[in-house]
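Protein in question quoted in full.
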Amino acid sequence: MSGPVWALGAAPVGLPPDTRAPVGRAGRPAAAGPPSFASLNQQGLHMGSVIKKRRKRMAKKKHRKLLRKTRHQRRNKK
């Protein structure tokens, strides 16, 4: 085996086993800021009316896009 012994999973001599900061997604340090709107909504807390309206509008656009795709499929099938 070439390479340090601690590379196999053991902590280097002289250091406690877990001195690293908590790591979030993509290897970045975990965020310490306020929670996002998505996490607040999952916890059952208040969600602003502006966000509700935006979600409704986006859902409507997505539905219209879906209908448009199926309409083109029906037209091209004949």
Summary: The mean pLDDT is 71. DSSP finds two helices and no strands in the chain.
